[in-house]
């Protein structure tokens, strides 16, 4: 049993190893275990000095407001769209993420989905397993090398995806808040213009209200019948009703999706399309990366309460 007086609120279940390290170091309160959250907060809300949460869960404004002595939020992931960053900045609450550790895995999966959709790996797997090859030839798929890749959001993950795509001799286009003037990369001022130019439209930008539903029917029709949507970012970026319409109309060639608007629930209609590859939000789900992410979540809290500073805080004043 630890001797600390520092209370940490854990919003949703974390990896077992991380949960144990946190409980050995701090007094941990698992919010997800409390049926009467109002009662818990009225009794213990003022005691909470830190929050540990996942990137897909965050910490909403209402809950944050009920933690008057909150000093730091340590996030298992890089997504902060579920956190009220304006309130955090106003209250000088530190927000720390597991930056730089999941970039490679997410970029790897993005390219994996590009290959899986283009080469029809799921369809070909089913065909081979079913015995169809005994009586018929496999269908022809599409080449990956040399196709045009469009990236929405050229941050660290976007750049890592571009680096991998370059090895496939894929011309790189991107849409971002500014033209980063990168040699051999073509900047597009709008998502529609980028979609109209590429064979694969890859989403690698944050979620949040400002980007919610940005991939709508207009963007999908611009992507066109030879274009494929790849989403390894946030499900909220895509208007899923419009995506289903586009797939039904064959307005796009297909999609590779790792994230969804109402996870873990996936619209049933999306599951019916053979030209859609579905994965269950596994972009960073490798043993090596998850262990490293857990270490950073712990280290951010331990460093802050030991030395007064987190290891990987984000800039809330930019």
Radius of gyration: 22 Å
Instruction: Show unreliable segments.
Output: none
Bulk shape: elongated
> Tally the helices: what do you get?
11
Q: What does this molecule look like?
A:
With 318 residues, the protein is of the alpha/beta class. Helices cover 35% and strands 15% of the residues. The model has no long low-confidence stretch (mean pLDDT 95).
Summary keywords:
single chain; 318 residues; alpha/beta; seven-stranded parallel β-sheet; 11 helices
How is the topology of this model organized?
Blueprint: E1 7-10, H1 16-25, E2 27-30, H2 37-44, E3 48-54, H3 61-65, E4 72-76, H4 85-90, E5 94-96, H5 103-118, H6 121-130, E6 149-152, H7 156-166, E7 172-175, E8 185-187, H8 191-197, E9 200-203, H9 217-223, E10 228-231, H10 240-248, E11 254-257, E12 276-278, H11 287-307
Parallel strand pairs: 1-2, 1-3, 3-4, 4-5, 6-7, 6-9, 7-8, 9-10, 10-11, 11-12
